[in-house]
């Protein structure tokens, strides 16, 4: 929300102040639904190929199945918004997908869910709420083994509801790696 105050100054005479407010609309991120998932490149560590994503302007559950099997702490209902990524499983069949913080962002808690299939028929293969490599954080880390090499996984990142009072949207880092 922006606040403004205006007055005129004409021929040495000032008018009274006039005030008001206006808000701007957040545009959904391009990867707001599964069909426009952003591509992750698998690296050797989290820091190899991280992307910076955002939940600002994202919509709730667009393109998702019924919801993840984890991270439903708000009375069993995920009251959040999500964005989508896709990643190709490396030759080892093992992949770790992790989220982490971005300095200055208000987003402090994510849920990460991975699916096989395509955007019309998704099957959950894993979900994680609070398993980040960063001690004490509420970011997510999902380690999958025995996946089909060359298969595409679709990954949904959710902003967790308000269990910790951190229901704000914001930026986060996401990376896929085979350590």
Task: Looking at this protein, list some descriptive labels.
179 residues, 0% helix, 5-stranded mixed β-sheet, elongated, single chain, mainly beta
Structure description:
This protein is mainly beta. The protein has strands spanning 2-6, 9-10, 13-14, 18-22, 38-39, 42-43, 51-54, 82-88, 95-100, 110-118, 121-128, 141-144, 152-159, 171-177. Strands 5-8-13-10-11 form a 5-stranded mixed β-sheet, with no helix packed on it. β2 (9-10) and β3 form a beta hairpin.
Mean pLDDT: 84
Low-pLDDT residue intervals, each spanning 5 or more residues: 73-79
Q: Radius of gyration in whole Å, from Cα? A: 20 Å
Distance between the termini: 44 Å
Strand content: 35-45%
- Following the backbone from N to C, one meets helices and strands in this order, namely EEEEEEEEEEEEEE
Helix-strand makeup class? mainly beta
Mass-distribution shape = elongated
Helix count from the secondary structure assignment:
0
Topology:
Elements: E1 2-6, E2 9-10, E3 13-14, E4 18-22, E5 38-39, E6 42-43, E7 51-54, E8 82-88, E9 95-100, E10 110-118, E11 121-128, E12 141-144, E13 152-159, E14 171-177
Parallel strand pairs: 5-8, 6-14
Antiparallel strand pairs: 1-4, 2-3, 7-14, 8-13, 9-12, 9-14, 10-11, 10-13
Summarize the structure.
This protein is mainly beta and 179 residues long.
């Amino acid at each position: 929300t922006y606040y403004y105050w205006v007055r005129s100054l004409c021929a040495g005479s000032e008018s009274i102040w006039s005030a008001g407010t206006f808000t701007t609309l957040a545009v959904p991120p391009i990867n707001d639904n599964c069909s426009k998932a952003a591509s992750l490149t698998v690296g050797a560590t989290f820091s190899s190929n991280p992307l910076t994503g955002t939940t600002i302007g994202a919509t709730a559950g667009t393109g998702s199945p019924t919801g993840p099997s984890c991270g439903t702490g708000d009375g069993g209902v995920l009251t959040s918004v999500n964005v989508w990524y896709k990643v190709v499983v490396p030759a080892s069949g093992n992949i770790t997908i992790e989220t982490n913080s971005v300095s200055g962002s208000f987003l402090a808690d994510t849920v990460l869910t991975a699916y096989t299939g395509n955007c019309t028929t998704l099957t959950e293969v894993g979900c994680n709420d609070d398993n980040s490599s960063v001690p004490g954080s509420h970011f997510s880390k999902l380690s999958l083994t025995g996946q089909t090499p060359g298969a595409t996984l679709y990954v949904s990142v959710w902003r967790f509801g308000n269990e910790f009072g951190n229901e704000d949207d914001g930026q986060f880092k996401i990376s896929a790696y085979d350590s």
